[in-house]
Design brief:
Blueprint: H1 14-36, E1 42-48, H2 52-55, H3 58-68, H4 73-80, E2 84-88, E3 91-95, H5 106-124, E4 129-133, E5 136-142, H6 143-156, E6 170-172, E7 197-199, E8 202-204, H7 208-229, H8 235-246, H9 252-257, H10 264-283, H11 291-297, H12 311-314, H13 318-325, H14 327-333, H15 344-357, H16 365-368, H17 373-392, H18 397-405, H19 413-416, H20 429-440, H21 465-469, H22 474-493, E9 498-502, E10 517-525, E11 528-532, H23 552-564
Antiparallel strand pairs: 1-5, 1-6, 2-3, 4-5, 7-8, 9-10, 10-11
Helix pairs in contact: 1-14, 3-4, 3-5, 7-8, 7-10, 13-15, 13-17
């Protein structure tokens, strides 16, 4: 009999270790019910202790710490050997049991108290599976044996301060064993769910409706959270929050631990809501946000997207990557049950991923064992989309060039900025929406009109290209000076001597003095001074966008500067 044993390694963050434990336990339980759910005679016991962390006996805890963790025993004795004073108004209470709230050692100390009980169960009974995550225990085996385990927990648990909460303890198996209803096997008050159970935040069941209902419930709460942040009425903050903590990031764990088939109905609801929120952020729910804009917005930054992921995309690789990378640990946990780690759900997910990516990448075992498998699968998946995009969507040369130009390095850094007004990292809502619309190829004007700054009219300029480089707008001068000052600051921090707006004594063919150099780097190139000139240009011409090709404007501007100087 094997039970899950986890070692906390210093190199692994606590959150990663926690997620690994929960994922493997969930995978193991779902594989058991998937493979042996039709067998009558097995039962799954979900243990729930009453107020577990606050009821632990401190004397037993101190003894276990001295035995297993002597290096920290003196510190733990200092913290817990004497009762703590708790003041409630004028009353003084004594804290004699459990752990102090917020104690980072709490999980470790609780595990040490529980460990002797877990070992006794392991040595006394022949079980199919025993897995514990702190006070959440899951025990699978012969129904009568599981009943004996419950008796042991009821009898020996209180000696350590662990009292069973029978009302929340559950017994379940897809094909219920009639013996579980016999008198004396299980308490009459124990819960007996029929379709499935919720273990460590996720479904364990062979009933797709039960699993789907749990996923829909979580998806609904995520949508409600996105609806709440809409009240901020700040597109920059809203997009950051949707990308970081209120969108698909709230569902990543569920996507990694539940089969893609469970999400079929929920993903459409989520993606429809996400599209509505993005459309409101970019265009205030106005026209222009079509299928192409939705597709680009839900691409990663490296593919010129907004870094907001759709559930329909993540489903293709999240579950499979997580299952494959935990296969070795899962196989160890299921060894005594005779069940192989990869089941039908994994095979279906594998076929779906290969079909979506068009790649046999996962057929190589060495690639499966590689780190960051989920990121690699995501890159393969979105790379295929990039290759097929022009044939799937009716794109103009402008859309293609604008999209590909955003794939360059640091082109999306401004989207990652946290809005902090004191650091100049905020944009007003109208400006932010205009930049997003320009990036996604959404027209800003229904008909071309005169520029409010210089009164010039540019034919076909419905996208606002002229506004980017209009020399009559104060903003372009500010951008020029910001880049110049940033370059000077970099030189200063790097120990390079540099000057700003330096008159270098150059004249043109008419003997007129040329403008001072924006930045002069002294003795940079083998003792010679280097002039740096900063220029902002646009591909727009009075007759429209004559040649919307990447790099064309930069090359032309450089050629003009070389001829001038």
């Amino acid at each position: 009999m094997h039970y899950l044993k986890v070692v906390f390694v210093r190199l692994l963050p606590h959150k990663i270790v926690t997620q690994l434990i929960i994922k493997v336990v969930r995978y193991a339980l779902n594989r058991l019910v998937e493979d042996k759910g039709d067998e009558v005679g097995l039962s799954m016991l979900l243990v729930d202790f009453q107020n577990a962390f606050n009821m632990v006996d401190r004397e037993i805890m101190l003894r276990e710490v001295c035995t297993h963790c002597p290096a920290i025993s003196r510190w733990v004795e200092f913290c817990y050997s004497s009762p703590a004073h708790l003041y409630y108004g004028e009353l003084c209470l004594w804290s004699c049991q459990g752990f102090q709230q917020g104690d980072p050692l709490g999980p470790l100390l609780f595990a040490l108290v529980l460990h002797p009980l877990v070992c006794k169960i392991r040595d006394s009974f022949d079980l199919t599976l025993q897995a514990w995550y702190l006070d959440d225990g899951t025990i699978v085996g012969n129904t009568l044996v599981v009943g004996k385990v419950l008796e042991l927990l009821t009898r020996d648990g209180p000696r350590s301060g662990l009292h069973l909460n029978i009302g929340k303890t559950e017994i379940f198996w897809p094909s219920e064993d009639p013996r579980s209803r016999l008198s004396g096997v299980f308490p009459s008050a124990i819960a007996r769910p029929l379709r499935g159970v919720k273990v460590l935040g996720g479904p364990v069941s062979v009933c797709p409706v039960f699993s789907s209902d749990l996923v829909v419930s979580r998806m609904t709460r995520t949508i409600e959270l996105m609806d709440s942040i809409a009240m901020i009425d700040d597109p920059q903050s809203e997009l950051l929050l949707i990308r970081a903590c209120t969108g698909i990031s709230k569902l990543y764990f569920a996507l990694r631990t539940c089969s893609p088939a469970v999400f079929e109905s929920a993903r459409l609801t989520f993606d429809t809501s996400l599209r509505s929120h993005l459309e409101r952020i970019v265009t205030v729910s106005g026209p222009g946000f079509g299928d192409w804009q939705w597709r680009v917005a839900t691409l990663p930054f490296s593919f010129s997207g907004l870094g907001v992921y759709a559930a329909g995309d993540v489903l293709h690789y999240a579950f499979l990557a997580s299952r494959l990378q935990s296969a070795e640990l899962l196989a160890t946990l299921l060894r005594s049950s005779g069940i192989v780690a990869r089941g039908s759900s994994s095979e279906v997910a594998l076929r779906g991923c290969i079909e979506a990516t068009g790649s046999d990448y996962l057929r190589n075992p060495s690639e499966i064992a590689a780190p960051r498998l989920m990121r690699k699968l995501a890159d393969i998946y979105f790379t295929r989309f990039v290759a097929d995009a022009e044939s799937v969507f009716s794109l103009t040369p402008r859309h293609v060039t604008l999209w590909r130009s955003q794939q360059g390095g640091h082109a999306s850094d401004w989207l990652r900025a946290v809005p902090i007004s004191g650091l100049g990292q905020t944009m007003n809502g109208r400006s932010y929406r205009c930049v997003l619309s320009y990036r996604l190829g959404i027209p800003l004007f229904s008909v071309p009109g005169p520029c409010s700054a210089c009164s010039r009219v540019f034919k076909g300029d419905i996208y606002g290209d002229h506004a980017v480089s209009c020399t009559s707008v104060v903003g372009i001068k500010h951008r020029h000076n910001l880049v110049r000052d940033t370059l000077l600051d970099i030189c200063f921090r790097s120990g390079i001597s540099a000057g700003r707006e330096v008159d270098i004594g150059l004249i043109d063919v008419l003997d007129r003095s040329l403008h001072p150099a924006d930045v002069l780097l002294y003795s940079l190139d083998r003792g010679r001074d280097v002039c740096v000139d900063l220029t902002g240009s646009s591909p727009l011409t009075p007759s429209g966008l004559a040649d919307f090709a990447p790099g064309r404007v930069v090359a032309d501007a450089a050629q003009r500067k070389c001829a001038k100087y």
